[in-house]
What we know:
- By secondary structure, this protein is α/β, with parallel strands linked by helices.
- It has two domains: 5-243, Rossmann fold (3-Layer(aba) Sandwich), CATH 3.40.50; 289-429, Nuclear Transport Factor 2, Chain: A (Roll), CATH 3.10.450.50.
- Helices cover 44% and strands 19% of the residues.
- It has helices at 13-24, 36-43, 58-70, 95-123, 143-163, 182-189, 198-202, 219-230, 244-263, 271-277, 287-311, 319-322, 339-353, 419-429, and strands spanning 5-7, 29-33, 48-52, 77-80, 126-130, 169-175, 237-240, 323-329, 358-367, 370-380, 394-406, 409-417.
- The strands form two sheets. Strands 3-2-1-4-5-6-7 form a seven-stranded parallel beta sheet, with helices on both faces. A five-stranded mixed beta sheet has the order 8-12-11-10-9.
- Strand 4, helix 4 (95-123) and strand 5 (126-130) form a beta-alpha-beta unit.
- The relative contact order is 0.08.
Amino acid sequence: MPQPVLITGCSSGIGLATARYLAERGIHVYATVRSEVDAVRVGAIQGVTAFVCDVTDDAQVARVRSEIEAREEGLWGLVHNAGIAQLGHLTGTSLDDLRAVFEVNVFGVHRVTNAFADLVAAAKGRIVTMSSLSGTLSSAPMGVYSMSKHALEAYTDALAAQMAPLGVHVCAVAPGNFASAIASNAVRRFDPPDDAHPELRALFAPDADTSRSQYPGPDPVAEAVHAALFDEEPLERYLVVPNVDEADATLRKAAQEWARLNASTPHRWSLERLASEVLGVDPDAGDGAVSALAEAGRNEALLRGVYQRVFVDWDLAYADEVLAPDFWSHDWPEGFRAGPEGFRDFYAGVRANAPDARYEVDDVLAAGDKVVVRWRIVGTHTHQWFGVAPTDRPLELEGIAIYRVVDGRLKERWVVYDGLKSARRLRAEA
């Protein structure tokens, strides 16, 4: 069994989901929370030991260090999840409010790292910081929060360079918009800014909905933290977003930052050098390799967008925009109608047999004009499914699809899926 992991900020949201996710996988979790009530609730989760700890308080952090050290179990990982946000323009934000955010999001991380770094180093373990899309993006009403997350990105890089010779891997997880209490906590903790526009000021009304319940649950972030802690070859960054639009905005901003710096210097890089230095393309391959790389990137983005729009949002009309007029899927029966019309008919039938079905994408690999997608359908078994009568149980179907892209549109597809495995699961559970 691996040594324990300490996670800060586990009263709700991402921290709570991550503590539960790790504990369910047999990892002993030390979870810090804000109150004794939270400690009782979170500590009731099997495999979780909860401590009341304010990461801005030296004495409380030292006390948690002493309690963990006394258990003589070691410490494999440290996850810096505790964080707060403040809503308002920079010119309307007081220095006290600015300091309050940095005390938790930056100085708190520093304080907790310094308290536990030697234990993690002794285990040659992992440290994970919880960044954000705001570590790359900035917006007017989220300026202070963005400042703190940009600082955390720099902190992560510097700490990674320091700890690597000791055998400790340090990385950042950058979540997008998931359900959490960060907005409600911000409204509770801070007063509305003096120069708040009406839409922002409305969030501070007593009856305002700040639950963020419109966003999906944070389990994907917990999965990324688990990977950062325990994968044999962890990444340096994990961008975890619920939809392609958030990924596009973040990656576009990162690319724009590079382009802006590159344009400002006489020592600018060519695209060939960018491909070689950052993406590993052989510079001797010339423009052809760069073009092929760009084509693969466009095709991968196209397919990710298709799976989000069509197979998660079920916007079947999107087929008219992305499918060639003679699109053909080689798993369709002979005589089936080709093109976007046939595509819509086919997936309307899929939706009829599994009304709450959605696709989840596990892998997307692109090369040249081909894109491979490893996918799964998840939903509820309410209709006939591969010969099995409805059971109202969860269903899952796994498959692989290969698409050919021509002139920016999907031209044809080959699909394989394991319907027998899906049916066997339903029968075994029935």
